[in-house]
Every structure is written in structure tokens, then in C-alpha cells.
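ingest -> validate -> predict -> emit
validate: passed (alphabet ok, no gaps, 220 aa)
predict: started
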Amino acid sequence: MHEGLVSLERLFPVLLRIAGRKCVVVGGGEVALRKIRSLLQYAASLVVVSPHAISGILQLHNEGAIEYRQKRYDPADLDGAFLVIAATSQCEVNSAVARDCERLGIPVNVVDDPDNCSFFVPAVLRRGSLSISVSTDGKSPMFSRRMRDELEKRYPPEYGDFVDLLGEIRTWILRELKDPQKKAETLGQLVDKQVMDLLQQGQFDQAKEYVRNVYIRCRS
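emit:
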């Protein structure tokens, strides 16, 4: 094994832009509905395939939020798909979806069947643009959710506003500062130990004032 490679079974964490991309959910029950609602939060273009669907899925279809195909799954449903979630109560259907996705090179998550998954959906804490994800590589989703709940207490909503301010200042620094060393030093000052200590102490206004002063000084 090459030095630095820990395990071939480790999963590579990524954040995906799925807005406007075709995502397919195979299944029409409560589990499928939870996955659908999660994907809709990120503006995915949703296609749902199932012979039967619960009222929540039908309502989303009637509202135009998703496309519901009332039919049995077949591989043609995957045409143009960016990612797929198999969430039926039939193992043979879920396995067929997984095989087809592997053949077509489409990432697939099969609910409660980690061996057939090429990706897992982590437990996520969102604070505006700040996302904190917890995953156990599919070994214990419940533990991931419990860890997410613990992080929720530690990182209140004010972190989202702070990240927005950082983003605004960082954009200006990258655009206006020409000296590479000064640029790197200024970006480091925006998140130095004093800033992190203020945030951990819940002093969000003081942390914002600190980074604004960094911004003012770098312009002078």
C-alpha cells in the first residue's frame, strides 16, 4: 500500500451541486418521501418512479415540485440521471436499480443496504452557508444523527451570518489585494485564534467587528 493511503474502503467526502439536475428516487413510501424532501431542499429536478405513492408524494407532484411516474421501475428511468436513490420495500427492485446505476456510472444510494451504495447521505447540520456533515461510512446512520444533534447545540444559527460576512470580505480581498503574501496573511487573520475564541464564547458581534477591522486595515 502506498504511504499515506489508509484504506481502500474509506469514502471520499464531497459536496455536490444538484440544483436543476435530474435526480431519480425509486419508491413511493415514507422513506422515499423523506429522501424527496431532502433533495428538494437543494433544488434538484426530481423524478419519482413507483407503481403506488403515498399522499405526500402525490401532493408534491400535483404542486409541480416533482415528476411522478406511476409505473414499475425500468432502466430507461435513469436516462440523464445525475444521482439515484432506491427506496422501495422490495430488495430485488433496489438491487436492480443498483446494478443498472453501476453499469451506467451513476452514483446510487440504496436505503438500508450499504453494500449496494456508491454514496451515502450524511447527517447534516446547516447554518446558512456553513454545512457540517457527519458520516460513519454507512455503518451507523443513527450515530451520525446523534452526533449531528450534539453539534447543533455547539454551533447556533449565528454562525451562518458570520460565514456570510466572511464570504463578502474574502471576495473583496481576492479581487483587490495584489500582493500574494499580504493576501494570505489577511485571509489568515480573518479566522485566527482570537476570532475562533470569540465565536466559541458566543460573542458573535465582537467576532464580526474583529473581521471588519481586519478588512479596514488591509485596505489602508
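The chain has three domains: 22-121, 122-155, 158-219.
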